[in-house]
């Protein structure tokens, strides 16, 4: 009982002390009124929080967190749009300055940085490859031209003239002139991006030989029978295609595959007809064919990137990497190849500008160009070693396998680009 009484007395004393202190502290009514007035003024001046115009959710930034609609749309002053465009371009350019040096000089660096999560400081792989690919092949179109004389030979050596020759000596003369023109064309295209068209030139050479041999046989048979010189037959198969062992003809022997629908067969025959017609234009304007082929190459490379990534996936199946990781490696590899090709073209352009007559400076440019070309396979090998971190023996084996398969794939892609260019020119 005594303890309970003591506790009660202590509580009473504490309560009395608090009341006394409150009574001893005078209330500052002026300060309280000022705070109340400030709160009232801020409440009166407070603006309602902005809401998304699409879904009505409260906006917390430049994009709605609920639906993703941006706050800034296209319906605003043109000056603001132009400023945003310059800001975007400047941002990309800044990242390019941080991306291009390691892309060229540090094999595998960008891919490993991307996998480590350090991504925003560099240009994205897709944008990097797209930019360099377009820049490289656009500059390739501007950097060289094809002389029409190397293709048409002044109209004295093409297939139609060979078929129109009336003597064996005339056939041989026109055949030799056409072959000389093709040889000069191949020499001009060697070691340039247009070298992808050399197989087409060689196919043209074979066709000239066949046309000359057929015309000589016609003339000799007619002479042996005592008949007049046969007239030249129109050639509607300038591409020298064969269907079921016979020369293609749009009416007598067209493409007619049973496993294809009728419209697909018609489309294929129409494309061949268009390509045959463009051959005559090619003789007059070979640059049109060159531009069409080089314009088709970037699209072809975009198709090759996921295929090459699939090849990497199969080669490193036990690494348990995601397919998209191989896509990043493929994009960086092709971006480097486009960058290196662009540098080769720039060096060649400088050589033609600063050393058109040869000399020591031209030799120096030749060495630089050779080093840039040699850096391509070395770079890809080192990149493959650093990204996948395997021993040198396995890396070399897989590098050779991938290189062989990709070379075959690239050859088909080049022929496809040539076919697309011939039809699209």
UniProtKB/TrEMBL annotation:
Keywords: Membrane, Transmembrane, Transmembrane helix
Keyword Nucleus attributed: no
Bilayer-crossing regions: 128-146, 292-315, 327-347, 359-382, 403-424
InterPro entries to which the protein is assigned, alphabetical: DUF3667
Residue ranges of the region described as Disordered: 221-245
Protein name: DUF3667 domain-containing protein
Organism expressing this protein natively: Thermomonas aquatica
